[in-house]
Structures are given as structure tokens and as C-alpha cells.
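Researcher: I'm preparing a figure for a lab meeting and need a structural model of a single chain. I don't have an experimental structure, so a prediction will have to do for now. The sequence is pasted below. Please return the structure as C-alpha cells so I can convert it later.
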Amino acid sequence: MRRATGGGAALLLAVFACRPPAPRFTLLFLGHSPAASLGDQSWAPDPEHGRLVAFDRELRVTRRITNPRLATPMAVTPLGTTALLVTERTGEAVVVDTAGGGRVVREWESPDVASLYAAGGGRVVATRSPYYVPQLSAPEPDTAPLIRMLDTLGRPTGRGLATIRRPATPLLDYVVNAGAVAVGPDGAVYYAPLVRDEIRKYTPGGQVAWTTKRGLFRGGSEPDPEFLPAKGTELRLKKALVNVALALGPAPAGQLYALGSDDSAATRLRVDVLDPATGAILTTRHLGPRETAVAVDASGALAVFDADSLIASADGAAPGAREPFAPGFALPDPAGDTVTLAGFRGKVTLVNFWASWCDPCREEFPHMAELYREFDRRDFEIAAVSDDVDSRSMLAFVRRYRPPFPILVGGGRMKQVYHYRGLPYSVLLDRRGRVIERIFGFGGADEFRKLRETIANEVRAP
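Model: Understood. Here is the structure written out cell by cell.
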């Protein structure tokens, strides 16, 4: 048999050289959340894992950012050339410097019950968030702004765009006025109410430039949300979830993309592409059950993906990049003996922050006790740090629940040290004291089943 040499290699190279380049994408939506473009990367929130994830132009995961202040990030928007303005589910804003290792540079409280933020053209705006919607809210005055204007420190400027819409039932003010928002590079504001078939554009000066409807309601009749007969103590509300999120695509086209719904529960999603100059709907794409991530390619064509598959690759990205848990602690136990973080080195360790007044913490303790008994002390430990100011309340809690794992006394100083959003808050560490994952709140038995699997895998790791 004759062996092919130089000529064959040249032919092979020519074949590969003729392959078309891989398509390059800009991510618009991941799940129900808008993404943000910074340079050659698309950033998106991953609320289930409390992190931000960056994708390259081929939608491969390139970076992950976790931080105790990122509990449940729901939306991101660029703030300058390297910073992201992140919306937390509960309405707080977190500004993250992507060029500074994911450092949180500032945060602010929500001006509403919960706010959604967008930025562009040198301005920051806030609407009532569609990601956390109270069924009932205190009535607001007719003059309350629909869209609030903020400075880059999160302070209201005293100006606003438009005024709220008053429903027939005043207690539903928040539901009716919650909505998605985006800001163009010229400072124009795009707004889409959660429960109304409408998308609006406001000029930088605050005038309505256009209003677009999809025609989702037959006969043009669009009812306000209304109460349904209660089931026991459950409050029920009849409403249609129409608009979920807005995003502006990359230049030069810079189209407006509206993620909306064909059904009242936002389970059958659609993407409408709008001309930002006129509001005309250019095209509509109805999404399948697993088409939960939406991107646009360099030609402006829409492309859809399975968001779970995209996010799953984040767990294998950047191997060896686990961050150390810091700062280390040296805290007393109830007997007054000092326990240090270094003393847990060599074991997989769950550091749990709790307080006696925290109802979810009470629910979580039995699950932690069961988890603690399942693993050998040579492999796994729990350090449960109380953040009670009142030591008597803390000791009464310990006497009542008799946890088998070590209890440490934080003395009400832990939130200032570790910057977590709320309680309970847990951090799972590997044998070298590096962060495997952060757990915000109490997710019930399902969460602990997943946690048990993660610990077992980590214990078996070499």
C-alpha cells in the first residue's frame, strides 16, 4: 500500500480551509432573563446557581462570577464598558466589574417593592420588576412615575417617565405597572408592561414615540387583572402574563427584541422583533418547549438553543478556578472555645449562616442534621454560624433543636463580613477550603438531595 505524503497533506489542509467559519452569536435572552453584551462576550444571569455567566461568540462558556451579593440575579445590563448592572430578584441592584475579577463595586436598595434596572445612553432607569410581583400592594398616587430615573449610584434624580396606570382595583397597582425595560444608546427608553399587550418607546425627553400591540386579545378587549374566588387561604388572581423581557440587539441593526407569551402562564414563549424607529413588528418566532435561549447572528437572524444545555457547560468551564472562601474565621462556640476555618481543612465543609429568628433556618436544620449523619467525620463537616445579636435567643434555639454539628457564635457581625443577601446562606467548600457552590435560602428536600450528591462526588474525588 502506498503511503500518501506531502500532496495528500496539502489536499487535506485545503479541505479544512474551505470549511465555512463557525457562526458568531450575540445572546439576547437566557430563560426569562435579558442578556448583556460587553465587548466580544455575552453575559447572562443564572439565577438557579446565583451567578453570572459569560459566553463567547460561539456561545461557549468563558467565565463565571459568583459573589455572596449575587443571590438570585434576574437581569443584567451594561453600565459602561466593563461593568454590569445586575437586578436581584428582590429588587436590589448590584454593580459588578467584569474586568476586576467580578468585584462588586456598589449596590443599592430598590426604589420600589422590587425594581428592574436598565442602562444606556448615560442614564439608568428602574421599573417595577416583573420577576417579583406582590399580589397586593399599597395604592400609589396618580402622579407616581411609571419609570424612575436614577444616577449611577442608584439615587433617584427626582425625574421620571410617564405615570402609572390605575387599575379598577387599586390594590393591584404593582401588578398592572410591573414591566420589562431597555434603554437605547441614545437614551430612549423601551417599556413593556407584564400584563398588557403593549410595547412603548419614550424619547430621551420623555415623549411617547410609538406604541405597538400584538393583537393578542380577541375583539381588542383587554381586561385588567381581577381577583378569583379564593381557595382556602390562597389568594388567586386572574391575569395574562404578556411581556417577559426586552433586549436591544447589536449594532448596526440594533433591533428591539421582545420576549413575550402566547398564554397566560408564560409557558408558550414568543420573540417579536421590532423596528426601534417605528415600533413595527418585523417578524415573530414562536419558541418550542426547549427553545429557552435566544441569540442573533451577525446577519441579524434569530437562533434558539436549550438554555439548560448552554448553562450546563458552565459547570465544566475554567477547571481549577475555584476561589478560596474568605475571610477565614475564628469564632467561639457556645462553650467559649475558639473554632477556626483552618481547622476544617482536609474535609468537605458546609459553612451555614443562620439566626434564631429566621423561619427557613428552622426548617433547614433537620435536613442539615440528617446530612451530617450520612457522612464520615473524616470526610465531611458542618460549621453552622449563628448571626444572632441576642445570645440568649441563639442558645434557646440550640437547646430546642440540638443540632449534632458544631455551632459557632457570629454575634450579629457576619453579614457585614461576608456580605450575604439574607438567611439562611450556605457555602460548600472542598477539602482545600475553596468554594464549590453557594446556596441562598432554603430550597427544601430537593435542594438537599442535590447537595447530598454534590458532597458525595466531592468526597470521592482524588
